[in-house]
Amino acid sequence: MNLKTTTNLTLDGVMQGLGGAEEDRSGGFERGGWAIPLVDAIGMQHLDETYGGADAFLFGRRTYDIFARSWGAFEDASTSPIAAALNDRPKYVVSSTLTDPQWAGTTVLSGDLVKAIRDLKNRHEGTLLVPGSGKLVRWLMAHDLVDQLDVVIYPIVIGQGARLFPETGPDRAFELLSSRTSPAGLTMQSYRPTGRPQYQAATLDTEEMSGVGRAPQPS
User: What is the β-pairing status of strands 148-154 and 56-60?
Assistant: First the structure.
């Protein structure tokens, strides 16, 4: 399976509590519900296609609980591609404490998680989608288990909340696979991890910097 993460982010990198004021107040977060007012038709289509294209889902425990309370209790899943995919397809949740998940189609992963997730990827085909789940995404990245990282960036700064990547941590380079922008200003980008970044060893002078990207001149 191709393991793909999908994350909704503000311009300042916050991913917490996007769906509603009461969705996730952990850490004293008070600015939930920032994403919904900004989603336009193109943004919604992208989200529908992302979830609808998944063959299975992988969650961290907090995101799983949020999704189970909302999408898992959707009255008529047939009216929403996201709800239909989440309720009809296999779900895996990483947890050392969850023993009796109530959301149908859920399997709990614990113990040697690297082996469990690699086995899952090797046994099946298609896309294994990780929605949200910031802590899990960082762990997956650290263990080189992510094949594609998708982000939807919203034109808003909210100034507080949990961010996808912390202030300090491992460094990663990415190749841009695709990018598009919706009329409301949502930017939807897909990246492939390519290892560690390269760093410039010496300071560039202004003449060298001004020539970057210019076509060579005929002699």
Answer: unpaired
Cβ-based neighbour number of residue 129 at 10 Å:
25
CA atoms within 13 A on the CB side of 144: 3
Which 8-state DSSP code applies to residue 215? P
Q: Do 46 and 189 touch, CB atoms closer than 8 A?
A: no
pTM for the model: 0.88
* pLDDT tens profile 79-123: 999 999 999 999 999 999 998 899 999 999 999 999 999 999 999
In this structure, what token pair is assigned to residue 134? 């910031």
Tokens 């060893």 correspond to 201
- d(C-alpha 53, C-alpha 67), whole Å: 18
Question: 135: how many CB neighbours lie within 10 A of its CB?
Answer: 15
